[in-house]
Design brief:
single chain, alpha/beta, Aldehyde Dehydrogenase, Chain A, domain 2, 2 domains, seven-stranded mixed beta sheet, 17 helices, disordered C terminus, binds NADP nicotinamide-adenine-dinucleotide phosphate
């Protein structure tokens, strides 16, 4: 049985113990074991700070941007290998492209942003944020802000659903900022992240110490954090809560960014009656969000808000579309939806659906049975798409329970104020969408939704063909959300880079400020 190694202190290190089993999501077969036993977490963090940080900071922004571009090209050339491993996580080729090509696109985006928005030249390693303001009448005393890379490690803890995109979307802004990364994947799909890291190491592109990888449990990693380290976490709200209150995180005021779970919503406008383009867009988008990655997207639509008079029509149309979805072995090109990441995850979804059914009826699918093409439904982690309908919009479960699979609940609403109130019952979400051709309705609903959301999409016929969709986080836009969604922000263009830097207010004469932010800042 293969034991997956960690990559620490610039070498692969095999685990000292057995560790957790990692399964093929399609067959249920044990693929490998993952354990971080024997990894010296304190030494790994020290290596990042003392080797990786200085190596990255010795490069200019533009040199780091070039590294990202080269890495993107290298991974693109090897993506077929990643697709093959990805299929064993239950992902169809479409899902794999979402994860793998999506991650490569983030690298490319930050490579271009680095050249476009960050200073170039040999000594330009400081980012001056905005123009300096005059603090005196004669202009002899100015004030501004400069950003310099933190001197610690970016500890990046990821969820199981995006084993490639998630590490890459965290690595890209950290590397561009000049901060070394320490990547910890979620165990259920770590075999794919392991292959990604192998490829990155094989590329030989990254400077020593700039990337390390802990496969298996995080152990006592967080105990060794310092005030210059930062943590970027993606996963459940429960784990986020535990980690953000870790004594060392609290004591050292470690910068902690969380992307947690989210009961996202999509609103159909009253103008979206059957026969309109908006109606079709709404139905199609909901089916897409339920079935891509078998619904294991933190941004997927969990609550589908529909005008009360359109509930039956939407329910019938979505059910009819779901009936066309072929579930099965993702290696088969005729399959539209693959397996969940594992049987443990499927049991968790079934448990959530059971809770949802206390207040909602099932319109489509059976949580305990599904026709599967080219695989065994029980050995593999297969689950039918499940559409529920909750006639009581005030019931609590649909606003609270995140069934992390191909599951959505239709919920009726009456007015724009009503739907904005219902959306707020999710207590903070990553993504929301409004499908309407009526700008007045869109405005009313969006103003109500915005304080509760990190990202909002308005879908009408003009935007439809170019729209990237409800569930796709984009590197130019922030990814995160308030409250239950974790209260964090990732990416968002330059914001994601600056997040890895210390912003310092700087006061002095024009000559001195120019010396620091204008290219003569020196590294220690
Ligand atoms: P999880 O159980 O919370 O685990 C997330 C990560 O935290 C994993 O890497 C896990 O490692 C690690 N972890 C657990 N305990 C830890 C500890 N004490 N110290 C350090 N690391 C620890 O979540 P998951 O089951 O992987 O992912 C599903 C959840 O993530 C869903 O609720 C989904 O909504 C959410 N999610 C959110 C986003 C977003 O961007 N907001 C994206 C994707 C998923 P092990 O696997 O080794 O335990």
């Amino acid at each position: 049985m293969k034991s997956l190694p960690s990559y620490v202190q610039d070498r692969w290190q095999s685990p000292a113990g057995d560790g957790a089993q990692v399964y093929d999501a399609v067959t249920g077969e044990v693929l490998a074991r993952a354990s971080s036993s024997g990894v010296d977490m304190a030494a790994a963090l020290l290596h990042a700070r003392t080797v990786g940080g200085p190596a990255l900071r010795s490069l200019t922004f533009h040199q780091r941007a070039a590294l990202l571009a080269d890495l993107a090209a290298y991974l693109r050339a090897h993506r077929e290998e990643l697709y093959a491993v990805s299929a064993r996580t239950g992902a169809t080729l479409y899902d794999s492209k979402f994860d793998i090509d999506g991650g490569i696109r983030v690298l490319r985006y930050y490579a271009e942003l680095g050249v476009r928005e960050l200073p170039g030249g040999d000594e330009r390693t400081v980012y001056a944020e905005g123009p300096a303001a005059s603090l005196s009448r004669d202009g002899s005393f100015l004030g501004g802000h400069v950003c310099t890379p933190l001197r610690g490690a970016a500890v990046q803890i990821n969820a199981y659903n995006f084993p490639v995109w998630a590490p890459l979307e965290k690595l890209a802004p950290a590397l561009l900022a000049g901060v070394p990364s320490l990547i910890k994947p979620a165990t259920p799909t770590c075999h794919l992240t392991s292959r990604l890291i192998e490829l990155i190491v094989e590329s030989g592109l990254l400077p020593p110490g700039s990337l390390q990888y802990i496969c298996g449990s995080a152990g006592d990693l967080l105990d060794h954090l310092t005030e210059q380290d930062l943590v970027s976490f993606t996963g459940s709200a429960a784990t986020a809560g535990r980690l953000r209150t870790h004594p060392q995180v609290v004591r050292q005021a470690v910068r902690f960014n969380a992307e947690a779970d989210s009961v996202n919503c999509s609103v159909l406008g009253p103008d979206g009656t059957p026969g309109t383009a908006e109606f079709d867009l709404y139905v199609e988008q909901l089916v897409t969000e339920m079935t891509v990655k078998a619904g294991q997207k933190c941004t997927a639509i969990r609550r589908a808000f529909v005008p009360v008079g359109l509930m039956d029509a939407v329910g019938e149309a979505v059910a009819a579309r779901l009936a066309q979805v072929v579930v099965g072995n993702p290696a088969d090109p005729a399959v539209h939806m693959g397996a969940l990441a594992g049987r443990v995850q499927r049991e968790e979804v079934r448990r959530c659906v059971k809770t949802l059914r206390d207040s909602a009826r099932l319109l489509y699918g059976d949580p305990d049975r599904v026709d599967v093409r080219g695989a065994d439904a029980e050995q593999g982690a297969f689950l039918s798409p499940l559409l529920l309908c909750c006639d009581d919009p005030g019931a609590s479960a649909p606003h609270e329970v995140e069934a992390f699979g191909p599951v959505s609940t239709l919920i009726p609403y009456t007015t724009p104020e009503h739907v904005a109130f219902l959306a707020s019952l999710g207590r903070g979400s990553l993504a929301g969408s409004v499908v309407t051709g009526d700008p007045g309705f869109a405005r009313e609903v969006l103003l109500g939704l915005a304080p509760w959301h990190g990202r909002l999409l308005v879908l009408d016929t003009t935007a439809a063909s170019a729209s990237t969709g409800h569930g796709s986080p984009l590197p130019a836009l922030i990814h995160g959300g308030p409250g239950r969604a974790g209260g964090g922000e990732e990416m968002g263009g330059i914001r994601g880079v600056v997040h890895h830097m210390q912003r310092t207010a700087l006061q002095g004469s024009p000559r001195m400020l120019a010396a620091l932010s204008g290219g003569t800042a020196t590294e220690d």
